[in-house]
Amino acid sequence: MAADRQAFHARLLEIGKDRYHDRHPFHGMLHGGGSTMTQVRAWVINRYYYQSRIPMKDAAFLSRCDDPDLRRAWRSRIEDHDGGVDAGGGIRRWLRLAAAVGLDPGYVASTRGVLPSTRFAVDAYVSFVREKPLLEAVASSLTELFAPRIHSERIAGLLEHYAFADDAALAYFRQRLTEAPRDVEFGLNYVLDHADTREKQDAAAAALTFKTDVLWSQLDALYSAYVTPGRIPPGGWDGRDGVVGETIATEAAE
Fold first, then answer.
1. Which CATH number does the domain 5-252 belong to among 1.10.10.10, 1.10.8.60, 1.20.1050.10, 1.20.910.10?
2. pLDDT by residue (tens digit) across 50-66?
3. 3-state secondary structure of 239
4. Which member of 79, 124, 138, 246 has the greatest number of CB atoms within 10 A?
5. Model pTM score
6. pLDDT, tens digit, for every residue of 194-203?
């Protein structure tokens, strides 16, 4: 059955409006200055696990692509996150943020203290991209449609409310304001072009919904462990490991 491209595009945008994680109360706290440094650090630790698996997800995607043009267009995503041999990349910029909030970057990179639910959700996303049809794998990346807004809000909120926030600490988010629109333009056009039946559109919409669930569930885990009810599961960061220097005293004064 023929599919309506414009209506499908609107359908994808509606998924983001209803389900993107900018609506989560944890982000409201973080961007509004209501988070303690323990909560900020817990977010940095757990979000690192997601950041570190993005290039692995993209490598799994590339390993399945027979089309060299698709591989050429997609491989920049790995370079964006991993950077070069000696410098650059989103992962290095995220570890710069870790240092700014008073965490040992080596501890964060070890992924010790990552919540079990974070691991489960992120690993499920990597498996999804590795195993699902390419159309669904690309569609799952379309949360990038909604990312520039949350990055802009985050930059403004962190700069306003937290002493650690400066241009160096927030370099990851500023860089994504440039990278994400480029990536999403390609991904969106690919999905709109290839989802040419109602069945394919349904599958692509379900893939985008799945990805919003992956992002939302990570914040649910953080909220449960470090806000309410404050129940840290076995293996979760205890609020002390990896905290360095005078920031320990700062935290004790909260």
1. 1.20.910.10
2. 999 999 999 999 999 99
3. coil
4. 138
5. 0.93
6. 999 999 999 9
